[in-house]
Amino acid sequence: ILMTEFFHSCTTNERKREIEELLNNFAQQTGAWRHCLFFLSNTRNEYVMMYSLTVFENLVNKMWIGVASQDKMEIRSCLPKLLLAQHKSVPYFIRNKLCKVIVDIGRQDWPMFYHDFFTNTLQLIQSPALASLGLVMLKTTSEELACPREDLCVARKEELRKLLMEQVPTVLGLLTGILETYWDKHSVIASTPPPSPTSGESLELLGSLFQGSQYSKLLCQPMAALDSESQQLCCLVLECLAHLFSWIPLSTSITPTLLASIFHFARFGCDLRTKPSEGSKVDRARLGVLAMTCVNELVSKNCVPIDFEEYLLRMFQQTFFLLQRLTRENNAHTVKNRLQELDESYLEKFTDFLRLFVSVHLRRIESSPQFPIVEFLALLFKYTFNQPTHEGYFACLDIWSIFLDFLTTKIKSRLADRESVLNRYKDALVLLLREVLNRIQFRYNQAQLEELDDETLDDDQQTEWQRYLRQSLEVVAKVMELLPSHAFSNLFPVLQDNLDVYMGLQQFIVTSGTTRRLNISAENDCRRLHCSLRDLSSLLQAVGRLAEHFIGEIFAARFSDALAVVERLVEVTCYGSQTTLYDLETAVPSVLKPDLIDVHAQALAALQAYSHWLAQFYSEVHSQNPSQFINLITSAIDASSPLITAKVPEKLLLSSCHLMVSITSTVRPVFLVTLPAVQNIYNLNTTESQTRRLPPEAHLLVCRALSNMLLLPWPNLPESEQQWQTRSSNHASLLAALTREYRTLRGTVNITPRQPNLDNTVIHQTLPVLRDIVDSISGESTKSRQICYQSLQESVQVSLSLFPVFIQQPDVTDEMLAFFLTLFQALRVQMGVAFTGQIIHTFLSMFTREQLAASILQEGSAGCRVVQKFLKILQVVVQEPGQAFKPFLPSILSLCMEQVYPVVAERSSPDVKAEMFELLYQILHQNWRYFFKTSVLTSVQRGAAEDTMENEAQFTAAMQAFGQSFLQPDIHIFKQNLSYLESLNSKHKLYHRKLFRTSMLLHFINVLLQVLLHKSHDLLQEEITVAIYNMASVDFDAFYSAFMPEFLNGCQGVDTSQRAVLARNFKLERDLPSFTQSVQRLVNDLRYYRLCNSSLPTGTIKL
């Protein structure tokens, strides 16, 4: 009654809690199992049965040690009888649960107290009426005993694995027998083949695989016609095999007969013809799916013993026979129709198989004379390009990518016979390239491409269409790397065709008054134009993606191809900008206008991709033919400069800005400054016109380009010809113009804080641009950085004087600190010690403890980001070599330990914490001698036995902060801090220092072992164990003789004899692998003992 009430929809949660408490109390009573046995024998209520079985499960898994041996015997004899009596009448989930409880008993007691546990299961499998029950028992045994959960001690886990391994040959033999029997029994009926065109199947394609082997005959047999009961049973056998294969190592127990049987059933996935008597199509497909699951379990194992290699070859032969069936064409079905009718999961499994074959085994098999790799690729090709779904096609493209990577690696390692290897595969690769290129073009594949979504972004911030294009282009690029000239000759003509259409649009432009329109209105023409423009856009992306294959060592060899591409791209971009196609009125504006904009933007982006090629052209060939280079660059600038105005669609505007940035930063032509178009952009950006202001991102890019042009050294020219003088004054006037409004703020602000209504927009507009300019020269020569700082100097001083005014406005402070952080990272040398000191001093005085606490407490807010950036600036300061900033160390340390740490210690505040600990680590690492004064001489004299400590209290506080962080749940901070300690040890021998060794080492080891015991940071098991090893190895003798006994004595929840076993099993090993094993064993067994002891009935006397 209680169970029914509990699950009734009207029962309130309050009442459910009461019932749950009642039931839990009942389960805890000694002898409750007897009542449950009675319920199980006499009730038909599923809830009651399930509850009773849960009581048994709890008893076996948690209290079995405390159950009297007489009771155990009774339970071991009653439950199997109950299973035999009721397995047909109870629902399957009750039957499975009962099987699991019996297997749980076996896990504890077999073979010592429950010697017939496994033989009973084998007998069930052998008796026809009970075979399915036996198989459920076998699968459960495999699941629960082969990879038991942690509630067993390690010794028992190892014993169970050994016992099961002994049974493997018998079990596999039995299962093979069942599969063979059912196949043969049902094949006899169908021994006369139906007169159909497919019965005399030709094996010409993979003929060389089989050469009259028994498989060719076997696999050509007609399919067995199984009734539904036989299908169910064979499904169970295959499920068992799949689980067994997940832990059995590859060995000869997996016989050829067994493999052949599995493959017979794998055929059920690819044979669609069914007779009414043969069970449903779904059941047949399920057999195929399960058989392929077994095959994939075997193929996924990388460790292949020598004597199994031949079996592997056979498996591949058999699977490719299936692949041939899947891709076979006959009059009734095209390959695509065939694949479409198949079960989706079967196809998935088959694709998984192909992926595993190519990624794990191809290197073994490829050179085998018995394996016709080229024919295999032909089948894979058919399989790939007839996939019924996009996901299936993506998965197959992945397989090709793995294959191409394999081929590239192989060729790099065998340069001598590079040509012969390539020739073997050339035809296949060219076919692949053509087909992948066709697949991204609307001209050949419109129906499928229109299904792709180009609106919603996935987790990688790309639409389905973009993902499709990107994955396809990756394959094209990989083929290009192997066969550059073939790839180019396939791609360039297709690009030319679509370009001709685009370039021909000019003749259809009609001007009336002020409007210009495209005079193409017939629906069919518009559709064709749309497709052509979409294809052009994709092909431009393809051409851009291939840019990297024209530079470096192959520059000269591929020069004429690349030149043809770049000239064409320059021509297209100029044409687009001159005819301003993006401005036309069209018949279908919602479709054609975005198309025209996109083509123009992609052409600019493709040209930008060739900027490294242009740079190489500039340095290597320019001197021979300067006019050619100058024309290319001038035209590229002429194409992009008219688009740099707020009136142009943003997509186009940004593409042209990015092109400008690449030309100024990568190519760096000396004559750029003299081009009228560039001077025009310079003037536009330095005059005080707010009306024509560009959107923020474009403005930022243009300023970066102009600054780069003036700051970056010109290639191929000596220092004396760099014209730094002129460039420096031009840069100063550029920045003066950009910061004009910003610098006036200093005069207009009363230096009294808390004026929240000040005009922040100027700050938000100016500082990101300045930050970006500094950032883009951070890796450049001293001269560039010097000029940059000279131009910025006044703005930096303005920022420092404004800082106190805006301290209460976190969004403004955030912007300012971001600027200062970039300055510190890139220009600290140029700023000089005195001024840097002034900045740090200002910051340290502004960030009071209250200010910090208030900011940190608003997690994720601008205030929080301000504190993070401030800590980042201090990280840069403490990493500076030399003595200049050493005077700040005490105040930085005290800010860290006395102001920030107390606020974050007890809170999660992950972002601030991460930065604070990094600062602490950098202080220790870069300023080790602030704490340990050991000179080289003293360490030699004293044998490094003693350390001279200074600032001991601060060092100890820092170490305590690290230790404290290991007691908190945040796994990222834990990982970061553990790696910091390990790094300090490898660089400065932290664990060997006297102070650490005598007063901290054992505490750290203890904390880390406790973390392993609590399983709170399981993902970091390996890192934690290595750290424990490194700490213990400072003095293994002390670790084994003093720490371990003390640690075990302090362990709660285990008795003396269990402690002795734990100590005995922790071997006195000094190498990392053995030590790791000992730690894992200790943690597992200690948890197991605690579990057992906690569930013993009260008053139990432990022996």
Automatic annotation (TrEMBL):
One of its GO terms (molecular function) is small GTPase binding. Belongs to the exportin family. Residues 19-85 form the Importin N-terminal domain. Pfam families: IBN_N, Xpo1. It comes from the Eukaryota. It comes from Labrus bergylta. One of its GO terms (cellular component) is nucleus. One of its GO terms (biological process) is protein export from nucleus. This is Exportin 6.
